[in-house]
């Protein structure tokens, strides 16, 4: 069984700060109208409550550019290390 952590605090009317286990975010907008969430992980979400008791609409972007660039740099470093190891083996043979 896993445990999570999430805390949300209202800091101004229409502004909330949300702190989770892996990231933090700021939500702008009220309960009834549209609201936008900006996360430290790079995710941006727009949400809108719709008429009726259980309806809402949310659109979210994929992880932000920073995460993609970091992953790309990590993969490139691993590829370079692998190429270097192959080159050394060929020179030693």
Give a structural overview.
The protein has 93 residues and is α+β, with helices and mostly antiparallel strands. The protein folds into two domains: 62 residues, no CATH class; 30 residues. It contains one helix and six strands, in the order ββββββα. A six-stranded antiparallel β-sheet has the order 1-2-3-4-5-6, with no helix packed on it. Strand 4 and strand 5 form a beta hairpin. It is elongated. 1% of the residues are buried. The mean pLDDT is 83.
Protein topology:
Layout: E1 6-12, E2 15-20, E3 24-28, E4 35-39, E5 44-49, E6 56-60, H1 65-92
Q: How are strands sequenced across the largest beta sheet?
A: 1-2-3-4-5-6
- Compute the CA-based radius of gyration: 21 Å
Helix segment tally: 1
Overall mean pLDDT stands at: 83
| Order of helical and strand elements | EEEEEEH
Overall spatial form = elongated
Structural class: alpha+beta
Oligomerization: single chain
For the terminal residues, how far apart are their CA atoms?
51 Å
Beta-strand residue fraction: 35-45%
Number of strands: 6
**pLDDT < 50 runs, ≥5 residues:** none
The total tally of domains equals 2
What percent of the residues sit in helical stretches (DSSP H or I)?
A: 25-40%
Main sheet summary: 6 strands, antiparallel
Structural key phrases:
alpha+beta
Short structural summary:
The chain has 93 residues and is an alpha+beta fold. It has one helix spanning 65-92, and strands spanning 6-12, 15-20, 24-28, 35-39, 44-49, 56-60. The radius of gyration is 21 Å and the shape is elongated.
